[in-house]
Write a structure and sequence with these properties.
Layout: E1 2-6, E2 9-12, E3 17-24, E4 32-38, E5 45-51, E6 57-59, E7 67-72, E8 77-82, E9 91-97, E10 112-113, E11 117-122
Parallel strand pairs: 2-11
Antiparallel strand pairs: 1-3, 3-8, 4-5, 4-9, 5-6, 7-8, 9-10, 9-11
Length: 123
Amino acid sequence: VQLQAFGGGLVQAGGSLRLSCAASGRIFGNYAMGWFRQAPGKEREFVAASTWHSGSAYYADSVKGRFTISRDNVMSTMHLQMNSLKPEDTAVYYCARRRIATISSRVDDYDYWGQGTLVTVSS
């Protein structure tokens, strides 16, 4: 399984970005997908997660109501729509996948990781 995240960039506070994560390899089956982020000098933290088939979602409190996770089963792509961005959202964002369908917010529960994409929110 290979994951590739893209869509990051520089945006002003209050703006929006849409991140995408393309999956290739053994992608069939139901499993949990997640987005995490890591700001400079900080640990990687959970942002959002969803199951591939059901679409049920779970968000970190810090992004709830502003970020939306979605997936395109046909294109094997997961998205993270980020609205009302704040400077504290600045981080490298990573997509990840579990081998099972149970949503988790724990970094260690994810088996596959894409390379990160940098999101910078200016004030």
